[in-house]
Amino acid sequence: MQKQMVFPNGFLWGGAIAANQVEGAWDVDGKGMSVADVAKLKPNIAVSDYKNQWHVGSKDIKEAMATVDPLYYPKRRGIDFYHHYEEDIKLFAEMGFKVLRLSIAWTRIFPNGVETEPNQAGLNFYRRVFETLKKYHIEPVVTLSHYEMPLYLVNHYDGWVSRDVIDFFVRFSKVVFNEYKDLVKYWISFNEIDSVFRHPFTTIGVVEDKYENQDRLDEAIYQAVHNQFVASALATKYLREISPDAKMGAMITKTQTYPETCNPKDVLLASQANRKNYFYSDVQVRGEYPSYILKEFKDRGLNVDFGDNDLEVLKKNTVDYLSLSYYMSRVVSVDMDSKEITGGNLTSGIKNPYLETSDWGWQIDPIGLRIGLVDLYDRYQIPLFIVENGLGAKDHLKADGTIEDDYRIDYFRSHIEQMYEAIQEGVELMGYTPWGCIDLISASTSQMDKRYGFIYVDADDFGQGSYQRIPKKSFYWYKDIIESNGASL
Predict the structure, then answer these.
(1) In the predicted structure, residue 2 carries a pLDDT above the cut 70
(2) Which of 158, 348, 367, 369 has the highest local Cβ count within 10 Å?
(3) Among candidates 241, 233, 230, which has minimal Cα distance to 165?
(4) Which residue numbers are catalytic?
(5) Model's pTM, two decimal places?
């Protein structure tokens, strides 16, 4: 007899979006320009060329600031969640969401990041969103910074390299904690804080072509992420003062790396890659730097400025839970140059012959999720929360107005099954919010045709379409999963 996969009582089923990929209305009601408004449509870049998918240089910033046309800057228009949020939340409620992960666009509250008083129109918008969620008994899980830092701070402060940005971020955090303490219980400080080396402009506002060599660039990146660690710890401190029952989470991209062979050199490479992934969560969960990172600073002559009280602040203000995104695994070898390389917009690696590959080159590996969950829980022993996981694919609207996305159902089924198995191994898993629960602008190439959602949005890469919302076949499948708490698997 097949066992029934019932998840723990109170498991937080839902979905995830980000302000910069859904809201649009980029210059409405006093909003300032963010790093996302510089992201250009890049539909023709090779799937393995993740560096150029994300790259933004000084010239790109100037070009973006010189135009208000959203045609080639799709994140400026998103899916117009700014005006459709009530309709969208109603659809999320129909699926039975317990939670919705979303973010607050910093530039809606402080348009340039440096103001002393918040923009009331921005505060009012998010209050309306959170009150609508409350109406449908959906808890918001709110990310403070999801690739949306003010562009002004990039141009005038070199982004997060400046310690001044810590104070600006803490001011923003305090304002939203006080404003929404009656509406928001779950917070996340920084989205995928480990992504600083993959796409430094998007994550920390570092413009790579400003630095004379790789060492100086790496030094700036390490300084910026250190400042984010301190800002996250201070935000955690003030959240506990302002809203004692609320919870603060850290977030990393769980990049599961395998050795190609049992050659100890391959195994060592994989071990080093996984260890580097843990650096970011080690600081936020354990409250201290790993020794090998401090040794790297010393050996390479990297001058990373620690304030007088930084280490004390990090140690005293660790997070309540660890959230993660998981999309793919990768394979490494000492003989990479002679191998077939594949990868999505996260990283690249050797093609794994045991895995299927998505339309965008991502290697689909549900067992890798289970491995990652067990490893993370064994390491930290705090609650875990999967806040991104999903499949970007080319969906097709049929003549009868339906979308048959069985490939997406298969993807989610296999990953949810492995989540259940991880729970059976003792992992404390809070919840699951699949990425892009409604179609949105993709993060790296700013495409609309790379679709993730349970809900189809009738718009193409150039913003043409009715913007009608249409439930896909997966919409009803996921509804059954939530309603049965996993038992319908």
Answers:
(1) no
(2) 369
(3) 230
(4) 388
(5) 0.96
